[in-house]
Amino acid sequence: MEHHPTASWLSEAATSAVQQHGTGNLLRVVIVVMVLGCVLTAWFLLRGYKRKDD
User: Fold this and answer.
1) Nearest-angstrom CA–CA distance, 54 and 52
2) Considering the domain boundaries, does residue 10 fall inside one?
3) Is residue 13 part of a domain?
4) If we measure between CA atoms, which residue out of 50, 30, 49, 27 comes closest to residue 38?
5) Domain contains 38
6) 34-49 per-residue burial string, b: 16 or more CB within 10 A, e: under 16
7) In a domain, 29, yes or no
8) How many Cα atoms within 13 Å fall on the side-chain side of residue 52?
């Protein structure tokens, strides 16, 4: 398995956030990112269904 510096930085940031603030803040961040991802995915998929009546 290859070493990815970005992934290790993200892992360390998540670990320090859990140790300092508990799991509540990390869970909030995960939920917000998940909701934003769903909204962006829905927008990306649904924009292809727009019809132009020329």
Assistant:
1) 6
2) no
3) no
4) 30
5) yes
6) eeeeeeeeeeeeeeee
7) yes
8) 3
Phi and psi dihedrals of 40, rounded to 5? -65, -40
Q: For residue 27, what are the domain limits?
A: 23-54
Written as one string, the DSSP assignment of 2-54 is ---HHHHHHHHHHHHHHHHH-HHHHHHHHHHHHHHHHHHHHHHHHGGG-----
Count of structural domains, the chain: 1
What is the reported pLDDT for 1? 47
- For 6-53, the pLDDT digits (tens) are 667 667 777 776 666 667 888 888 999 999 999 999 999 988 777 665
